[in-house]
Amino acid sequence: MHFLEREVVLNVSQQTLWEFMATPANLNDLTPPELKFQIVSELPARMYNGLMIEYHIGIPLFGNWRWLTEIKHIREGEYFVDEQRLGPYRLWYHQHLLEPVGEEQTRMIDRVSYQLPFGILGRLVNQFRVKYMLDNIFSYRTKQLLEMFI
């Protein structure tokens, strides 16, 4: 099992950030263009427990993938999880936590637990490629959020 954790403090209220994160279409704004991210399922205006979101993603060196995630464990204004149901990982469990830091700042924490398929080969691919790719994706996400919520 592999883990990634990222934390950023944004100059925005917890409620405003939650409204942004609870809108599934906003995922487009947080995904690097080189991933050719495309949501293919119909999206509601707001996420809910059990929401399934299907998208296509192009992963450099690994080709194009269909990815299906389920939104679950929502704690309104504070927390939710997206968990892969179908996609490139053997396991993908992404926790999104929002914590107030004063009245107009919010700490956003991303915790990802993931595992690649193919046993030792998957561990080697993670060591030499995937962990760096994920680091770049989450760096892009942080940059975008900081620009949106100056």
Topology:
Layout: E1 2-10, H1 14-21, E2 38-39, E3 52-59, E4 63-75, E5 79-86, E6 91-100, E7 106-115, H2 119-148
Antiparallel strand pairs: 1-7, 2-3, 3-4, 4-5, 5-6, 6-7
Approximate strand percentage: 35-45%
- Total beta-strand segments: 7
| Secondary structure: helix percent | 25-40%
Strand order within the widest sheet? 1-7-6-5-4-3-2
Largest sheet, in brief, is: 7 strands, antiparallel
Give the termini distance in whole angstroms.
35 Å
Can you describe this structure?
The protein is an alpha+beta fold. It has one domain: START domain (Alpha-D-Glucose-1,6-Bisphosphate, Chain A, domain 4), CATH 3.30.530. The chain contains two helices and seven strands. It has helices at 14-21, 119-148, and strands at residues 2-10, 38-39, 52-59, 63-75, 79-86, 91-100, 106-115. The protein has a seven-stranded antiparallel sheet with strand order 1-7-6-5-4-3-2. β5 (79-86) and β6 (91-100) form a beta hairpin. The chain is globular, with a radius of gyration of 15 Å. The mean pLDDT is 95.
Q: Keyphrases for this structure?
A:
2 helices; Alpha-D-Glucose-1,6-Bisphosphate, Chain A, domain 4; 150 residues; 7 strands; 40% strand; alpha+beta; seven-stranded antiparallel beta sheet
Summed up, what is this model?
The protein contains two helices and seven strands, in the order βαββββββα. It has a seven-stranded antiparallel β-sheet.
